[in-house]
Every structure is written in structure tokens, then in C-alpha cells.
Predict the 3D structure of the following.
Amino acid sequence: MGTEDERTGPASDRVRLRRRRERGSHDRASIDAILDEALVAHLAIVMPDGQPLAIPTLHAREGDVVYCHGASAGRTMRTTAGGAPACLTVSLLDGLVLARSAMHHSANYRSAIILGRAREVTEPGEKRAALRSIVERIVPGRWREVRPPTDNEMRATAVVALAIEEASAKVRVGPPADDPEDHELDAWAGVIPLSLAVGAPQPDPLLRPGIELPEHLRRYRRAGRP
Amino acid sequence: MGTEDERTGPASDRVRLRRRRERGSHDRASIDAILDEALVAHLAIVMPDGQPLAIPTLHAREGDVVYCHGASAGRTMRTTAGGAPACLTVSLLDGLVLARSAMHHSANYRSAIILGRAREVTEPGEKRAALRSIVERIVPGRWREVRPPTDNEMRATAVVALAIEEASAKVRVGPPADDPEDHELDAWAGVIPLSLAVGAPQPDPLLRPGIELPEHLRRYRRAGRP
């Protein structure tokens, strides 16, 4: 992310990292940690007319699989569930990298990319578990507090699974990487850290009187950069 | 984003919003505001083998065009610059929507999607202006403080332009949309707001002594939800 950086996907090993190897990784622990911290994924598919489409979606990883869901009637879910080639990307933005030279400006980030064909999840037990994972990924402990899906709701929702087989992580950390001869310039250089901040929970205006904010929501935080 | 929500892209009018129309918009002001607030875009292209690939990238809008850049030698940039169908998506996450029922859990967000074929920017003036826009989009006023690109740096960097012609915005705001019969349940319901927080700037360890943090960086903030 930035001029000094490029992720490539060659045909023979499409997630092999060709450039800036020091930032890339096929390490499953790194990939999983990024998938688990991110609240939003971008799911890219190719529509029947050849047009790629990247849509933001909630997701959840369970072991070697990432689940996403959407309305059964939606074009995107139908295409994905039909086994079209897919790409799921998550990106965590950790900072802005301000260099002394324009072209070394960059971002500190962690991203993970999974390539493959999605499988529609139709077995009721796995489908329910996947939906549970997605709710629990948003707020751990939430599933047991809320009304579970009805059969009609289950039918109206499509769940797709993408196996973590062809996957890579990419990370940029640290200060700017200016050319040595630029270190004498007068420009300030460094990093502006960015993180996801959690605000005070806002009760639904229709909330029944007497329902207190649960303690685990009062303490809700997102994991930051390790 | 969430079970109750789906963005679709039909073939005849691929960015037409079919479902949940109340959340969709083709309004240019809405699209532009989302593009301008987002620090990161996801650029999706179809690789020659048919595999879609979505990569995080910095971007900048100038009028009716969005620019991205990357290493000239990178596979992604070469494919994009070659005129492959592309999709640029930006997503801003504003909150987590906690409903009384599992399936109405969702996210408050603003996203914009642009479809089209990218054009490689080769004219030196436009290319330099595009790179300036990307740096200025990260930190307004930064370009004049730093060393401009050399001819070699310009050659090593590819810039692509995507016209904002086929585009849509999608926004979810407000409290959960529980079914009326669920309002009597005991679960707390509401929204946990999320925003991008800016930390204290971290000077490059190699920063020359005596260079103070400029005032505009001391006051650096990202625009929040309007």
C-alpha cells in the first residue's frame, strides 16, 4: 500500500509474494490473526459478464474456513455460492507513513488474502454454526443473549465458506524507508498511528425500560496491533 | 453488511441497487464524500487466469476520476493498467449493530463502489498531479514539505485512473431493525460506535535533531461520520 509496495499474484502460485518479500508471509498464524481481528472483509468475485465486484461483508474464521453470509436472493451471494472464483481480503490500517520524499509515503497495515472457490453451506448444523460464529466474531458472548434464527430466516440467508488454502498475509511496520541521501532534508518524518476506537454504546430508542447494558458490552474493545 | 443487507450488481445496470433501496444511492455527492474520507480502497481485478484479486491500496479522487498507484513491475498494476475490468470499493465502518435477534445483527457503514476499466496515466503532468493528490489525500499540505519524485521514481511507479461513471454508494445508519415482536425480548439492543482514532505522531528514529513536528501534523484528525 503505497508506491514502494506491491502485492502480486502470479499464475503458477497465485499468492506467492514476489516483491518486498520481507513483508509477505504464508504463515497461518499471521493470516489467522489478521482475519480474526478484522471486522470487515472485502469479498471479490467475477460476475457472469466478467466484471469483478468487491463488496464489504462481515466474516468469521473457524479453523481452516472463513464464512460470509448474505441475502439468498442477492446476485452476489448467488454467484459466490455457485462456485465462482473468489478472493477474500481483509486489511487493517495501523498508521500513515510520512517520509521525507513523496514516493516513500506509505501506510503501515496488515492484510490477508484468500483465493479459491466458495462452497455454499447448506447443511443446517454447519450453517447455524457459521452464523453463530459471525455474531460471536462481532461481540463474543452475544449469541446466547439473542433470539436464534428461525427456519425462515435461515432460508433467506445464504452462507458461503472459503477454505484457507491459497492464502497470504502482508504486513508493513515501522518508520519510513527513505533513501539515505534524503535523511538530511528538513521534512519531519515518522508515523501517525491509526486505530479503531470504540465509542459509548448507544441504546436502541425502542429499548424496553429496565434493560441494562451488559458488562461485557461496557468493556467492549477491539484488539489493537499486537 | 450483515444478513439483512445485500448489494447487487446486475448485468444491465451493474451498479443498480436492487435490494434495500433505502440504503443505496447513485448521488455523486454521497459517493465523493465516501471516497474522500476513506484512507484505503480495495481494488479488484480479474487476473488473466480468471481469478479475481482484491488488493488494498491508497487512492485519491480528483473530480470525476480516482487514482491509484503501485510498482510498475507488479502483476496487479500491469493487469489493471492493461485495461482489465476493475472494481474499486471503499468502506467506512461506523458501528456495530446489536439487535435482539441474531439475524438482525449488522454494521453501520458507508461504502462506495466504482466499476469500469482503468486507464494507465502516462502523461507526465497528469501522473505527477495524481501522485500529488495521493500524498495530499493522506496529509493535506504534505506535498510541498517533501522531496518530489525523480524521473526514475516516476518510471518505477504506475498510476491508474478509474472514471466515476458506473458508481454507487451504500449507507446503513441508525439503530437495529428488529421485528416488532422481538422488542419484548430481554436482550440489550443498540449500536456500538466505531471510528478511526489518530495516535500521537511517532518521529522516525533517524530524524535529524532539531526538526519539530509541524503544526498541521500536531492537529491531524480524520473526518468522522458527518
Remarks:
- Chain B touches chain A through 116 residues (CB under 8 Å).
- Residues 21-218 of chain B form a domain with the Pnp Oxidase; Chain A fold (CATH 2.30.110.10).
